[in-house]
Fold this protein.
Amino acid sequence: MELKICHLYPDVLNLYGDRGNILCLQKRLEWRGIECRVDYVKLGEQSDLTGYDLFFIGGGQDFDQEILLEDLRTRKGPEIGAALEDGRTFLCICGGYQMMGHYYETAEGEKCEFLGAIDFYTVGGKKRMIGNYAFRLGDESGGSTVVGFENHSGRTRLGSGVRPLGKVLKGYGNNGKDKTEGVRYRNAFCTYSHGPVLPKNPAFADLLLETTLRRKYGACTLEPLQDQFENLAHDTVLKKI
Amino acid sequence: MSGKDSFQIALAVTSCRFSRLILRGLNRGGTSLPGKLAMWFRRDILAVTSEGVETILVTGTNGKTTTAAMLSHAMQEAGRAPLSNSSGANLLSGVTAEFAAAADLRGRPMRWRKNPDQPAEAGMGSGLYAVIECDEGALHHVAPLLHPRVIVVTNIFRDQLDRYGEVMHTLEAIREGIRLAPEAVLCLNADDSLVASLALDVPNPVIWFGIEETAVQERQDAVNTVDNGDRRRFFVSAGEETENRPLSPDSPDKISDARYCIRCGTEYIYRYHTYAHLGGFCCPSCGFSRPLPDVAVTSIDGIDTGSSKVHMRIRGREGEIQELPVRIALPAVYNIYNAAAALTAYAASKLPLQEILKGLEHMQSSFGRMEHFKIGGVSIQMILVKNPAGCNQALDYLCTVKEPCTLVLCLNDLDADGHDVSWIWDVDYEKLSGCGNIRRILVWGRRAEDLQLRLKYAGFEEKRIRRVPEKELKKLLDVTYRSQVPVFILPNYTAMLPLRDALRRAAGKDSFWKG
């Protein structure tokens, strides 16, 4: 078995230790003897995205995100949308998450058109929502508890047709109001949680791998791993908040 | 001056001095509260108490404390007795406290110079000097009150993102601070495109420092000749097979805080890298590129665990050029940058360069930055690490240490550290797993669990990592003192404080505020 992972825009969307998520996926495959290849597809590169099983998009700075918008519209946008509809797995964090929605409207009323691949939008707020937080994944996403760190000023509102990734236990989540966190649409898992999110949440990491392997190879059960360090780091954060 | 004015000033100065005395009596550092008190009586007390003082202000993400220490050490040795905030209290309150506590009741700087015979005409005017390190985010509060003669910007990297926000916010905060100090001479890092952009559209005179391509090249040659078959790394390498090459701009998963031109958004081309995003950058579209440095490191002749030897080319005010050997009594590449920054600031202040050259040679490490302790026969070195760029540089340095050693990594997440510890995933701990000299690793601190997880994913066997619970500092120290091999401790800020305190007591050193 082999999974092909595509790290999209690693050159611009790489804040907050995002690459730890890729490392985590790689290692958890390697420890189970499953092959894995990671390609980095940068800004300005025209690349065939149809061969990938799992896509990762991280968060970035405002300055970099502006540069990215044009690339998204003119080059990779349609392919990303197609892969998503085709049931490929996506993990999108923070800025990478917002990018999948319809638009981002700044606090000053300026509107940035985004990909519109998933039915939600984001509006900028004055106060940044910062801190350790925790949420419980929806039942369709395994129901485990996820801990992470959020740091965003955007308030995300989901459309009626999509479900949140989870329910906020402690912290702000999508907008600090409705207790929703992230979005789950087909096999796209979008969240505000960086930290990075996967190493400390091994159940979530394995859910992504299982989802991806199942789509590619049919039935699939992952061998359990020794997750003492992972669970200890997870529990320590959970106790703090 | 009205009676009310002088009353306020006297109160401000007195309250600052007394509260500081009391706090120190209680063995608290007392570095920021006295300043706040003084400002409560008189908001602009810093402007009053610093009037006429020739101040060099140092800011930037990494290297502030060391660069400032290099400058004040040189001035001290030369008998200029500068005022400095060596305790690291680098916000407005801390800087205010230093000046207010050193002022007389009329708010005038007391003659803190120890040597009144020092000729005042050598260099800056008044004969009163100060070297102040200033937090990037506080520059716009401090600069307009302090009227620094010189502002040094060392570099700009991603730092505690939950405190400072994005790198661009830090840059804009510094830009705003500079805008409020149009008279100051700027000493800027030419190799850092973010710092270089600070010179755009400002009236300030600028003096540049940097490391030349020849130094990167020559260093590799020198290493190859000396250590044939055992190449050591001084610059971040692109991958395992190219150990001695500087960071390649083409390695896409490497972190860069400035990949795209700040003026036009085109990707920079680099002729060479020194580390992280520093190097010979050039925008192929708008032409924004590395300025020619006035103080340039032209060759790195040797680095060991205690010092480095380099050559610097210095362009004088009249355009005359001299090339000098410089010995820096601190190891690691980033301290070569700090030394170049200090030399540039000295030149900008029109002080005799012999002083700084001598100072660099006799310099001692400061407050947890490459600080040595010798306890019961064990050699312990403490390297403060607060962000990925600094930490990667510290790890590169560790890789140059050949002898077996114990490594202690400490991570806290208190206010001063930033609550977000994600940055450890941007650090290349992977390169350590390739260094055979690390015998064992201890992790400690409020987020030790995150560190040990990070190390597991960096390729370390779980059984080689020992976590000491946060409450058991004594145990950590016991293990450290019993080590048969040298120990390197890499803490972040608040993790450093209790550790350093304990080591200091064990080794019989002074508290930081006693200087």
Q: What stands out?
A: The longest strand of chain A covers residues 120-137. Chain A is about 30% helix and 30% strand.
